Amino acid sequence: MTGVTNPALGCVGQPRVLAGLDVLPRLDRVDHLTVHGEVPPYRPDDLVALAEGIDLRGRGGAGFPFARKLKAVMRSARARDGRTAVVVNGSEGEPSCLKDTAVLLHAPHLVLDGALLAASAVGAEQVVLGVTRDDVEQSVRAAIAERGADADRVRVALLPERFVTGEGTSLINGIEGGPALPSGQKVRTSDRGLGGVPTLLSNTETYAQLAIAARMGTAGYCTAGLATEPGTVLLTVGGSTVVEVPTGTSLEYVLELCGSGPGQGVLVGGYHGRWLTAAAARTVTLSRQSLATVNAVLGAGAVLPLPEDTCPAGEVARVARWMADESAGQCGPCVRGLPSLASAVEDLVGGGGRAAWEAVDARMRAVRGRGACSHPDGTSSFVASALAVFPDELRDHALGSGCGRRVLGALPLPEDENPERLVVDWTLCKGHGLCVDLLPDVVRLDADGYPAQAVMPVPGRLRPKALRAIRRCPALALRIQE
C-alpha cells in the first residue's frame, strides 16, 4: 500500500520475533525449527497462565490483555455447543505500518505456531489468517503447506486493502465472503465471531509473541524489557523500517538507530494515534506507562517522525483527506462528517482564517462518539492532536502567511490511482504566474509565462496548496476536476 514492499529490518538487543532474519531472508519450516526449536505442548490453563505471567497484550491497537480474550472464548464455548475459531488479523490497512507484513513475509511459522497453540487451548477446529497483500498471502500459503497434518486446520483469506478492513467485525465479514466493512453492532467476537461461534481474534504480532513465550517460559520471556511490561515490541519507523526493541527503550534512541530524530514532532500509534512534541519524544520510552504520561499509546506500533523540511499543516491535511476517503460509508459521521472535517482542515491550511479554525473544531465535535466504528473518533483525534502540537504552524496557515515549506509526503500514503486535476480556463487566464509560486510541483510555465498544460494531475498531498492557488488566482481561471 505504501510502495515499500520489503521493509528494512533491525533490532535493539537480542532479536526474538526477528531472530534468524539477519542471515536468511525468510524462514521456511526447517529454518524456523532450527532457529526457534519445537513448541512445547500447553494445557489450556497453562497457556492462560503464561499469557497472564508475561502480561501479553494485543499488538494491533487497543492493547487488550490476551489472557482475558482466551478466557472469554473458553467461557462462551462452555455456555454454548463448544465450537470455537481462531482468527489472525494480518491486515495492515494503515499505510504507516509494516511490522505484521514483515513477520508474515519473513517468519510466518511463528504466527502459525502461536495461532495453533491458541486453537488447541480454546478447542478451535479452524484457524484463519486474514491478509490484504498478494505477497503475504503467498508466503502464508507456502508456510501452511509446510505444516504437514496441521495444514488441514489452517487457511488464509485475501481481503481488500483498506484502512477499515482491520476492524474486528469487518475482518470477520470479509473472511466469510461478505464486504469487509464494520457491522456497526457492538458484538464481541469472543461471543459471536467467525461462523457465529466464539472466536479468538488478535493480530499477527500477538500470536508470534505467544509462540516466543511458549518456548521461553514466563521467566525466560521476562528477561527482556521492563519488569512491569516484559518482552519486546515491533515498531514500524518512518513507514519503511521494522525494528524489534525491548520495552522501555528510549524512543529517541530508536529514531537515531533508524537514521532519524524527533524532527518537528513524532506521530505515535499511526493515523489513529497521537502527535508528540519533539521535546516529549526525546523523553519518553516505549512503554505503556511512559507513553501514558503524554496521552499516547503505541497502538499498532507505527512511529512517524516529521522532518524539519516539510510542512506540518499540509501533511496533516493530506492524511485527514485520505482518512475521510477510507470511510466505511455506513454511518453519517463517516459519510458526511469526515469529508467535511477534511475540507475544513484544507480550508484552514489554505488560509481560511478564524472561521476555518472554528469550523475544524465544530466538525471534530460533530463526529466524536457517534460513529458505527472507531474510525471517526480516531480521525478526529489525529486532527485534534495536530492542533495541539503544531498550533503556531496551523494558525499561521489559517491567517494566510503559512510556513513556506513544501509538503514532502513524510507521512506515508498510497499512491494516488486517480488523482484530481487542476484545470486552466484559457478564456480567463491572464498569465499572472501566481499558480506556479504556490504549486511549483504541479504547474510549469511556458516561454510566454502561461501554464504549459491545461490539465495537471494533483497528488493528494498537494490538494491544500491547489485549493489555495485556486482562491488566489487573480483571474479566477483555475478549478479542481475529479
How would you summarize this macromolecular structure in one to three sentences?
The protein is α/β, with parallel strands linked by helices and 482 residues long. It has 18 helices and 13 strands. It starts with 7 loop residues before the first strand and ends with a strand.
Number of strands: 13
Structural class: alpha/beta
* Uncertain ranges: none
Strand content: 5-15%
Q: Quote the average pLDDT.
A: 92
Oligomer: single chain
Number of helices: 18
Helix content: 40-55%
Termini gap: 22 Å
Rg over C-alpha atoms, rounded to the nearest angstrom = 24 Å
- What is the overall silhouette? elongated
Main sheet overview: 6 strands, mixed
Order of strands in the sheet with most strands: 1-7-6-10-8-9
Describe it.
The chain is α/β, with parallel strands linked by helices and 482 residues long. The chain has 18 helices and 13 strands. α12 runs antiparallel to α13. Helices cover 41% and strands 13% of the residues. It has helices at 29-36, 44-53, 66-79, 99-106, 108-122, 134-145, 168-175, 204-221, 251-257, 278-283, 288-292, 312-325, 332-349, 353-367, 375-389, 391-398, 434-438, 463-472; strands at residues 8-11, 85-90, 126-131, 154-158, 199-203, 232-237, 241-246, 265-268, 274-277, 302-306, 420-424, 455-458, 478-481. It has a six-stranded mixed sheet. The two termini are 22 Å apart.
Could you name the key traits of this structure?
six-stranded mixed sheet; 482 residues; alpha/beta; four-stranded parallel sheet
